[in-house]
Amino acid sequence: MAVERFYATGKRKTAVARVWLTPGKGDIKVNRTFSVEDYFGGGDDYRQKVERPMTITETVGKYDVLATVKGGGKSAQAEALRHGISKALLGVDPEFRLSLKKAGLLTRDPRAKERKKYGQKGARARFQFSKR
Length: 132
Hints:
The chain is of the alpha+beta class.
């Protein structure tokens, strides 16, 4: 008998998280081996950020999360993981959409670094103008 798995992709800036949810006891594994604390470190309380979708939908401890995360920094990766978990929970129960949408967890944060323009110092910064 095949175990039911739910898949989703979460994104933030240049970070991408591929997330699989399986019925279980609430383990979260990042990049196959690390727990949330081991991967992100304990500083910014990433676990609370990552578990927020499950807290809102009251599914903490009901699903195991296996995620592969690439790109970006730690904060962007944590938010991409949170986005992926939110989208995967919709596969579990479409009724979760309203509460997740209200919390703003289904919207991909579109903010990203603006590219540097040619002939200029940066994205918006210009070389100093000299009249003479």
